[in-house]
Every structure is written in structure tokens, then in C-alpha cells.
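re the bet — no i am not wrong, look at it urself. input seq straight from the record:
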Amino acid sequence: MKQLYNRQVKNPEVPKAVVQALEIVLRYGPSAQLAVVGRSLFKRPEGGAIHLGGGLELWHGFQTSLRPGQWKPFVNVNTMVTAFFEPGPLIDLISKILGDRRGNLDISQVRALDKSQIVKLNKKLKKLKVHVTHLPYRRKVTIEKVTLASASELKFGDPPRSVAQYFATTYRPLRYPNFPCIEVGTKRNYIPVEVCEVIEGQHCKRKLDENQTSSVIKHAALRPVERFKKIEHDLRGCIASNKPYLDHFGIRISDKPVGLSARVLPAPHVIYQNDQQAIPRNGAWELQNKKFYRPANLKCWTILNTSNPRYCEPSAIKNFVASLRQYGNQLGMIVEEPAKIRNCRPTDDPKRLLTEERAGLKDLQMVFVVLAGSGKNSPFYSPLKNVAETELGIVTQCVTDYSINRRCNPATIVNILQKVNAKLGGTNSTIPQSVKTVVFEKPVMVMGADVTHPAPTEMNKPSIAAVVASVDRCAFRYIAAFRIQKQNAVAKARIEIIEDMRAIAKELLLGFYRANNGVKPHTIIFYRDGVSEGQFSQVQQFELGALRAACRDVEPGYEPGITFLTVQKRHQTRFMPQNSRDGCGNAGNVPPGTVVDTTVTHPVDFDFFLCSHFGIQGTSRPAHYYVLWDDNDFKADTLQRLTYGLCHTYARCSRSVSIPTPVYYAHHATKRAKCYVDARTDSSESGSSSNNSGMLPTCILDDAVKITEIMEKKMFFI
């Protein structure tokens, strides 16, 4: 560490083992008293935990890590919240898991649990640790399975007797003999659920439902002043409980946040038709009296309503269509009446429905699909997008019945039209001339890349890589390419490196070439999401090398200047204005455009923090940009302004977003590819063979993410 700051080493990377050793010292004392979850430490709130429903409660905690600063290393501290299982009788937890909006399941009124309830319990309770209460001593066991049969049905021994009979003669009669048992150990020992107690301090690793997630976000959203006070409180407790170990290693930590200087970049003007300018204020701008830079017309389209007609009446859809036409006209679009409006069921075959929609309509441009509930969680969504984009080549736009019934306001309609215009090939806005002259003087291709991984409960599904690339002079229109990542089935390891980058990059370069009449990009700016610092050198070596090889594949000797940056959002660095009067909005966050490139950045490498969005609630999280390679020798200010400008080109809204548009699009593209995989895997569960890991063969998965030729030129993924 001293050698790094004395500039005595050629390699600016501090060995991982050194950082890990120091971080162990930082957490050693508190970890003996608190619940450890990864690198974070949690405790149950003294005033009582906040109940999230479903047998979960919210615990507060903090995370510490070591970060290199420009003159010295820093301890990075941030507050955390996460879900833990509520301690207590397991039967109470089961009652809460199987409850609904009306409340917990009334155990006394249940004769037996059905198969669907047992499946739900197995998803929630597997690997949960419990104490058994029927023995004279405390014994801890781990739930491997919840049995389908009840305690009165499960039999063992010779002569056979049920678990319920055994407990009645050996311990005491069971109150709920018709309830299941838990299976523990490798020898399939059965224990009735009513004699088990959930042990305190067990983190819930499974995905939360919408209501639970909403509650977590609500309680995690602390204003900067509140967050920093809590951080200081947590840090003082951490230092106090860790003092002997810190003293032993000669480590001194300040309990106050570091002060530093930041710059606020001016927001770029957003250009619309006839060079009309929109000036962002607090990260947002109005579209009043503005027309899209290049509007597309919606002349041949239809509406499929999968919602219950009682909840989404014809009059509501008629009003929605009228609003689309009215505001479309104001934005420069011509929106005709839909050629068809018809109702269907969400259980209908989407391929048949879309084929029928296209019948008799030679120039069908788009199908609007009305979904019930929260849209993307609809069971109709993934199969719809799969057949529309990988088989039929039909552009679709999903709308929730809630948006049509209750949120059919100008803001909602304009946001929908922004997506529609982009999907139809239009250009909503462009970047100002000042940015064009510095960076876009010659042809530039801006790229974004991301890899999405399956949840721990979906290890039979693959990781998916997506890369997007701009194909126009103003970096508004993008095309996308997907690939299934190879899996390490034995270790179930997540592979972050995009293995087929060379072929993907060539595909996108040729797309740019065709879209620009044979012109190749002079400069490539590549934003890579989802890479941890430990993978920087690996990503730089492999993916940058693959990108260069792809350029040579397009044409021997073709060597455009490449600037390669990583974008990190999952970090714990937060900023707040030193003077509260400088805060932005009700929360008091740093204003959009805030750049930090001193004090807490790397002593040798080129990195910076940029907060490009307006923080509505909680504390804004800046994006951390790390420049791994720069053939173009951009000045820091030029690259920062370009990055900030690209946060203003997001087609889905008239706001600056928290990360550059190509990164957002790459993220959307991976989610769309996941829809294709989900549609194939869910429909193949009973039909197709899979490998030993339960995953479909690679050839089927590769075929699943191949879009039709017509979709290759469209922004269908936004």
C-alpha cells in the first residue's frame, strides 16, 4: 500500500489479498456481535423490526470496504437494509407465507395443505435453519425439503407407523397431524413443522415480491443528511468494538466524512425539430411546443386487449386512442385510427393472435397489447415478445390497463409516444452542436454492453450477454445483439466476460456500415456495465482485444480509435452537499451533472464519479466510471461531458438518467433476451430434454435469442 502511494510500483493495482486482509481487520470486532451477510453487517432494530409480510422483516446494517484515494486509502461506509426471516415457530412462518391480501392463513381452519402450497413452501424454506423443541436439548437442523405427505401419512419402521403416531407415543400428540413435516439430513429424517422454531438472524436470499420490494425501497430511501448521520453513528460503533484490533495493526480511522471539491457540468441543450432547444432544469425538460427531431408516422396498427373488458372498457380504450392521436400530432407524428381493436384472453396463444392481427394488413407497423396488472409480470408478456421478435417480426408496444384507465394523462401518453416513435424508426431528439464538433465531427459508434445472470433459484437458466451500438450521427438510434454465455455447470460460476465479443462486435460494425451507406466508424466509445474491479484487467485484455479483432475482420488494416470505460452502479460511495442550501429538490441531493474526479478517485488510474440524474427520493447514487483504455486521448472534461450528454438521449423519457443511454439499452436488451429464454424453457419443461444441470442444450438456447431480420434494424428492446 505504501509503495502504491510512493509511486514505487509499476502496477497500480493493490494485490487483492492485501485489501482483503485489511477489510477483515476492519470488520473483525463487529462481526462477532452482528449478523454477517457478505461484506455487510446487520442487526435487528432495537425498537422492533419492520414487518415486510410473508414472514420477513427488515434489518438495518452497514458495509465497510477499503478504497484507494488519491493521497491515502479510505474506508468506504454505507448504510444497508435487507430482509431476514422472522424468528419464532415455523408454523407461524408457514401461516404468513401462505397468507394473502386478507391476512395470514388461519392454520386452525386448514385440514391439509395442497400441492401448490407445498411447492411454495419448498421455494421459500429450503436451507432454512430451525431449532427442534420436542427434545430436552436444543438441536439445530437445516430444512432440505417440506414433505408433500402429512405427519399422519408419512410412515417408517417395521411394523410401519406414522410420524404422528410416533410423536404421540414418544413425546406428545401433535396439534396439527395433517400438516407436513420437514425433511432433514441425508438419511431423510422427518420432523413435524409444529415442533420447529426459526432461528433468528437468517438472511432471505430469495427474490422479494412487489409489495416487499416496495417496502424495502421506502425504508432504504434516506435523505443525504439522514443517511450521513446514520453512517457516522454506525462507524463510531464499528470503531469502538474494533479498537483492540485496529490498534494492533496501527490503523486509525476518522469517524467524519471526508470533504472534497466537485464540479457541476452544465446540462446540454436537447435539440428537437427545426433546431428547437429544450433546456433541462433539475434533470428534466418540457416537450411543450416541441416536435420530434424526426417523427415517424403510425398509420397501420391494431390493439389487442388481454385485460378483462370490465376493467378496461371500450370507452377507456377509445379515450386512450384519442389521446395518442392528439399528443402524437403535437409531437409531429401522424397517428391514424387503429385498424382493429379486439379482446382476447391472457391464456390465448400469442402467435395465433399476432398472426390474425397481421392477416389482411400488408403494412402492419405495430400491435398495441393491453396487459392486466403490472405489465411485465403478466404471464402473457414473455411469450408475446418471444414470438413477435424471434418468429413473426412484428413490433409490439405493451400498455397496462392501469395506464389506460387511471393514468391516461399527458405525461403517460407522451412517454408512450416517445417509445413508439423510436420503435418505428424515428428520432426523438439529438445532441447539441457543441458536443458534435468535439466528439462527433467524424463518424462515431457508441456501444454499451451488459451480462445478466440467473437468480440463485434459477440456476437451470443461462447467463445472457447483450451489446448495443449506435448507428446514426447523433447517437440516438441503436441496434442490439445477444448471446448465451457458456456455463460452468460443475461450479455454477457466473462468467462475466462476453465470450463471443468478436462476432458480436463484427455484427454491430456491419450494421453501422449498412445504416451509413458504407461508412465505417472513425471512433468507438464502449461503455461496459457489470464488471467488478477484480475483473478489469481480464475484461480489458479479452473484450478490447476481441473488439480490435472484429475491426480487422470487417476490413484488414481498419483500426478506429477505441475508448473503453466500465460503468459501476453497485458501489457504496455517496455524496452530499456540504451546505444544505446547495442541495437539489426536497431530498437535498447533489445536482445533476455533479462530477468528482479528485480525493476519492484512484491515485494512478483515470476514473471519476458522475451523478447525472435528479434524485427524487433517498440519496442519489452516482455512477463510477473507470477508463480502461483510450486511443482517442480524450481530455477528462471532454469524456465527462460526453458521458453526461449521453444520459440525455434516453428515448423513454424527457429526463437525464443515471447511466449513459447505451448502458441502459444493453440492460434492457438482456432483459428482453431473458424473455425469449423464459418462453422457451418454460414451454420445454415437459417436452425437451435437458442436460444434467437441468438447463436446455446450448443449441436450443442459442436459437432462442435469434431475432428476425426485420428486427435487427429496430429499437424493439426499449
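see?? The CA atoms of residues 647 and 659 lie 6 Å apart. told u. also Residues 685-690 have pLDDT under 50 and may be disordered. so pay up
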